[in-house]
Each structure stands twice: as structure tokens, then as C-alpha cells.
Amino acid sequence: MIKDTTQSSSHAVYSIKLHIVFVTKYRRKTLNAERLDDLRGAFADCLAAWRCTLLEFGGEADHVHLLVDIHPALNISVLINNLKTASARSLSDLSSSEPG
User: Fold this and answer.
1) Distance separating alpha carbons of residues 96 and 100, to the nearest angstrom
2) How distant is the alpha carbon of residue 71 from its chain centre?
3) CA–CA separation, 61 vs 90, rounded Å?
4) Are 55 and 65 in contact (CB under 8 A)?
5) What is the largest CA-CA distance in the chain?
6) pLDDT value at residue 40
7) pLDDT-derived band of residue 80, with 50, 70 and 90 as boundaries?
């Protein structure tokens, strides 16, 4: 269970959570445990740069779920775009380092 904590800025108190789901192309079952761990790190790093916190992460072979605590001044569409870019780069780096 997540503790509901509020944050404050100079004129506001806020607690904004986003549930984000990313799916693989054509829902192909391409995510294994190693790739999910790599994605968790990539998402956490990207979110930290945007003043956000990854509260929960979970996934299966064809999709991942993120629960994110965000800042109210954040442009959500730009954040989602950056998360997609970070995940694609992370998976391509992992794929290029695999033998085969």
C-alpha cells in the first residue's frame, strides 16, 4: 500500500499520481525479467530528471505498468514522450549487447 503524502510548493499543496501503461508493438511477448529490471532503472532515472518519483513498477511479457508521483507544473505529454524514448534506448542498448 502506498502512503499518501502531500507535497507543497509556494502556493499549493498537491499529490498527483499517474498510472501509465506501455505495451510492446503488436503486444509481442518480448519482455523478460532482465529487460524489466533494465526498464525499471531507465524509467526511474528519467523520472528523477523530471522531478517525479516512480512509486510502483510491474510488468509482464507484453506490457509494463508505472505508478508515478508527478509535479503539477509538468507537461504530461512531454513526460510520456521522454519515457518512451528512454525505454526504447534502454531496450536497444540491451539488445545490442546480447550475443546472437
Assistant:
1) 9
2) 15
3) 16
4) no
5) 55
6) 97
7) very high
